[in-house]
Amino acid sequence: DRPANTGPGFDDPRLSNTDAPNTGSTGGSAWDTEERLAEVAAPLYVGSAIRDRFVLVEELGRGGMGVVYKAYDRSRDDSSERHVAIKVLNDEFKRHPLAVRALQREARKAQKLAHPNVVTVHDFDRYCGNVYMVMELLSGRALDEVILADGTGGIPLGPAMEIIKSLGAGLSYAHAQ
C-alpha cells in the first residue's frame, strides 16, 4: 500500500526536496553545528514526507529523545522492507550538540552490526531542521509492555531467561565488534 501524497507536511515548503541540500547523512558532520541544530524544525505529522522518500504512516511512540514513526520508504524495491521506523529527535535533545554527535557516532557504529538481536540502523540525518534516525521496523511487543502485562508478579523464569539470553547475545555481539 503506497500512502497518498496528502496530509500535513506536504504543503510545507521546507519539506520540498528542492529546498534542502544533501546533508551528508551518517558519515558527515557539517550539519551538526550548534547553529544548524538550533534551526526551527519543520513540523512533522502522519502524512508528512522526509526527503520525498519517507512518508510517515503512524506514530509508534514518544520518549525523552523524540518521536518514533512507522514510515513508508518509497525507494525500497523489496515489498517486505518497504516500511521502516524513523526516530525524530525533539528540540530538547537537539539543544545538546554533544548528545546528538554521540548518537550519530552510535548510529554509524550500529550500521556495521548484523545480528538478529540488534536493530538494523539504516541512516542518521538532518532535514529541514529535523534530526532523524532510520531503522528497521520491528514487530511484536516492547519489553516494557511485556513486563507490565506479564510481569505483575514477575515474569516466569523460562520466558525471563529467553529475554535475558537474547539481550545478552545482542550485547555480546555488539561489544565484540
Give a short overview:
The protein is α+β, with helices and mostly antiparallel strands. It is built from 5 helices and 6 strands; from the N terminus they run αββββααββαα.
Q: Which features does this protein show?
A:
177 residues; alpha+beta; single chain; 5 helices; six-stranded antiparallel β-sheet; disordered N terminus
Tell me about this structure.
With 177 residues, this protein is of the alpha+beta class. The chain is built from five helices and six strands; from the N terminus they run H-E-E-E-E-H-H-E-E-H-H. A six-stranded antiparallel β-sheet has the order 1-2-3-4-6-5. A hairpin with a 2-residue loop joins strand 5 and strand 6.
Number of helices: 5
Rg (C-alpha, Å): 18 Å
Q: Describe the biggest sheet?
A: 6 strands, antiparallel
Number of strands: 6
Instruction: Give the overall average pLDDT.
Output: 80
What is the structural class? alpha+beta
Instruction: Specify the overall morphology.
Output: globular
What share of residues are in beta strands? 15-25%
Helical amount: 25-40%
As residue ranges, the low-confidence spans are 1-24
Distance between the termini: 37 Å
SSE order, one letter for each helix or strand: HEEEEHHEEHH
- Give me the side-by-side strand order of the main sheet: 1-2-3-4-6-5
